[in-house]
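lol ok so funny story. i was supposed to be doing the assay writeup but got distracted and ended up predicting the structure for this chain instead. priorities right. anyway since i did it might as well share w the group, maybe its usefull for someone
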Amino acid sequence: MIYLDNAATSWPKPPSVKEAVAEAFEYAANPGRGAHQLAMKSAREVFKVREKIKDLINAESTKNIAFTKNCTEGLNIAMFGSLQAGDHVITSVYEHNSILRPLHVLEERGVELDILDCPIDDIPESILRAIKPNTRMVAISHVDNLVGRVKDIKKIGNSLSRDILFLVDAAQSIGHMPIDVEEARIDLLAAPGHKALMGPMGTGFLYVRDDTSVLPFMVGGTGSRSQSLVHPDFAPDKYEAGTENLHGIVGLGAGIDWINEVGIENIEAHVKDLAQTFYKLVKEMPEVIIYGIESEDQITSIISLNIKDRDSAEVAMALDREGEVAVRSQMHCAPLSHKHFHTLDQGMVRFSFGYFNTMDEVHEAAKILKKVIENN
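and the output, tada:
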């Protein structure tokens, strides 16, 4: 199989990730819930991973890192815990439903919402023009989920006043490119563990800046202040009610170790090279329409396309049938982005590249795409 669906989840995982998860079964006890040696070791292992994430994004402290089960949970905590009726939020049509759907619910509860529909390169300036006296948050993805374009988060973050929260969805960037929350003046950053961070599914984290007030999304047992019926008000405990996914967190830590060993600059360069080569191979093929990319330097790890007016699901199934090329088709949980690109009915075929893909696979995938076109 040629696996080109890394934007959905990375595959395969580094062997060290699988080994770390398996090893966790040898000591797994409930972290923070006991004083015996297994519980203490489990708690230490969780803390080590918190440290690795802190260093990866240049956070102030480990207490700024809360574990979640995915990026969506982190985004929900950030939005529902920060916004109230009368607040104004700015986002864009290029966002995933994990931003758009919570904001839709919050809009029904009295939050004012502006969804920018402009060229991706114009987003920083468009945000500044949209700011109002009651603007409370800007919520933006770093790399677009559908067409893979980078948004200039450094420019956005450093242009906002400190009373406006800057929330970044790092689902398609973290692990593929450096992120520095201080450099980009990010207040809240949500990320999954199972994509380019190479961890297992069911993992993720939310970064919350020191001076940012976010209410917990869920309350319950934390292992701290258990004598009180009042949920802890300090981070990260207040965001982590219930037993943590120890095995997944340990696997995520092993994924970060692997990234540090390979070097994030090397990962970024390799993945870009693969995607840019694929772009050059397919852009002149008859009937191929590539979306959101006007030049090679705009390419990250994603190329989304259609074959004339053919249904994207039909094309994806043909790629799998003809040469076991695994891609994502249809909506990609980004309805407003599809509306922007006029593909709401057709969807798109998304090719997303990862570090373990090879140049031979890129050439073979292009060859199979050409065969699918010719067999129409």
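The CA atoms of residues 291 and 305 lie 6 Å apart. The domain at 15-262 is CATH 3.40.640.10 (Aspartate Aminotransferase; domain 2).
back to the writeup now i swear
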